[in-house]
């Protein structure tokens, strides 16, 4: 009996992912499966093997960075920047484990989203994925160039490696940039795509409510709308449960990266002005990536309460028009309870609310604390 249930569950998860991969880029679908973020990694030998590889990469990067800092502790000038990066890699590992631990809920969520239509934006999404891949390679190349000039000894545990071993340095940097920022970028992209699906569902429901005439806004129609809105609320709760910790880590890690880049820029302004092109490109790439990731997550997730408020405003207008049309003969208890309910807002561990205004708050705090610490 247990074997039968297990086979049904595996078939369910396999079918859900097979359907879902037609609505998201193939690369993104493959990546989340390889990273062990869905139940497909539990049933597929190939994905089970790539999951083990991801475990080794995350473990290696964290241990290796600790060794580097410990060996070269007295030679590191900007200790705060390196401390920030230690925390960033550790947070990336926690984010991966957090999504991995919710893989069953994520698989069910992806299956639920099949019936929610999303405008075809494959070209834009594929273009964005190409940019992320190119940035991963660019991070690795620019960091390697800078390391060959000044930091080979640091990456080589205090030893100046010969040219034959510099390929190992490049491979090591590839693994580093895979953990951060590439992995967090992929999780942020998946989160944004899911939020876009919910946003489209809410927009479609609002449009249908707007087109509904006063005469047809009867009990059955209102019950259907409330049922669909209840389904949206359930999905939003699942998204919050899965991505509360990972998205909070994405925000914190990218803020730490921005702090690291800004503090390094303030401490090494003369070096930048002397023409260190590789350093300028590296820091610019990291800054642009972190700022873009922060803005995308907060902007798209912050659009959910905006769309819900618009839906409630439209519903309130329809109720008022129906009352004028039918008088006080109809009751709107369920509708009024929905209107009294607060707009849903995604949060990070109930610490940070994902509103669009939070972008300015975070950037202001970043600039203030960076200036204070760098003095």
Describe this structure in words.
This protein is an all-alpha fold and 375 residues long. The protein has 14 helices and two strands. The chain has helices spanning 2-20, 26-34, 40-43, 45-71, 79-101, 103-112, 122-155, 166-211, 219-267, 269-273, 277-301, 303-326, 333-340, 357-374; strands spanning 347-348, 352-353. A two-stranded antiparallel ribbon has the order 1-2. β1 (347-348) and β2 form a beta hairpin. The longest helix has 49 residues, at 219-267. The protein is elongated and about 85 Å long. Residues 1-22 have low confidence and may be disordered. This is Gustatory receptor. The chain crosses the membrane at residues 46-67, 79-99, 127-148, 168-194, 238-266, 286-306, 357-374. It comes from Caerostris darwini. Keywords: Membrane, Transmembrane, Transmembrane helix.
How would a crystallographer describe the biggest sheet?
2 strands, antiparallel
Approximately what portion of the residues adopt beta-strand conformation? Answer: under 5%
Q: What distance separates the N and C termini?
A: 67 Å
Strand order of the largest sheet: 1-2
Mean of all residue-level pLDDT scores: 82
Task: Identify low-pLDDT runs.
Answer: 1-22
Shape: elongated
E-strand count: 2
**Number of helical stretches of at least 4 residues:** 14
Q: Fraction of residues in helices?
A: over 70%
Radius of gyration: 24 Å
Structural class: mainly alpha
The sequence of SSEs as H and E is: HHHHHHHHHHHHHEEH
Keywords: Membrane, Transmembrane, Transmembrane helix
Organism: Caerostris darwini
Protein name: Gustatory receptor
Transmembrane segments: 46-67, 79-99, 127-148, 168-194, 238-266, 286-306, 357-374
């Amino acid at each position: 009996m247990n074997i039968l249930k297990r086979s049904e569950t595996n078939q369910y998860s396999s079918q859900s992912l097979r359907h879902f991969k037609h609505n998201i880029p193939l690369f993104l679908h493959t990546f989340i499966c390889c990273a062990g973020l869905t139940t497909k990694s539990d049933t597929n030998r190939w994905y089970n093997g790539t999951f083990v590889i991801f475990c080794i990469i995350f473990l290696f990067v964290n241990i290796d960075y600790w060794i580097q800092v410990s060996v070269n502790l007295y030679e590191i000038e900007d200790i705060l920047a390196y401390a920030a990066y230690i925390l960033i890699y550790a947070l990336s590992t926690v984010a991966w484990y957090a999504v991995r631990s919710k893989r069953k809920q994520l698989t069910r969520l992806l299956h639920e989203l099949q019936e929610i239509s999303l405008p075809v934006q494959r070209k834009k999404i594929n273009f964005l994925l190409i940019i992320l891949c190119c940035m991963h390679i660019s991070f690795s190349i620019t960091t390697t160039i800078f390391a060959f000039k000044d930091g080979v000894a640091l990456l080589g545990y205090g030893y100046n490696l010969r040219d034959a071993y510099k390929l190992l340095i490049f491979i090591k940097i590839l693994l580093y940039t895979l953990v951060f920022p590439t992995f967090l970028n992929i999780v942020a992209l998946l989160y944004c795509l899911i939020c876009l699906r919910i946003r489209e569902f809410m927009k479609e429901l609002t449009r249908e409510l707007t087109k509904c005439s006063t005469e047809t806004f009867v009990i059955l129609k209102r019950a259907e709308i409330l049922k669909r809105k209840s389904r949206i609320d359930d999905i939003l709760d699942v998204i919050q449960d899965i991505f509360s910790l990972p998205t909070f880590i994405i925000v914190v890690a990218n803020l730490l990266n921005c702090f690291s880049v800004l503090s390094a820029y303030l401490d090494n302004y003369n070096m930048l002005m002397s023409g260190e092109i590789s350093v300028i490109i590296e820091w610019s790439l990291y800054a642009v990536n972190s700022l873009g990731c922060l803005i995308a997550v907060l902007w798209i997730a912050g659009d959910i309460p905006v769309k819900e408020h618009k839906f409630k405003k439209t519903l309130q207008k329809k109720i008022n028009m129906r009352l004028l049309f039918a008088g006080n003969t109809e009751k709107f208890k369920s509708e009024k309870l929905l209107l009294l309910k607060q707009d849903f807002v995604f949060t990070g561990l109930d610490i940070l609310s994902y509103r669009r205004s939070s972008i300015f708050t975070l950037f202001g705090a970043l600039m203030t604390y960076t200036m204070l610490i760098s003095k």
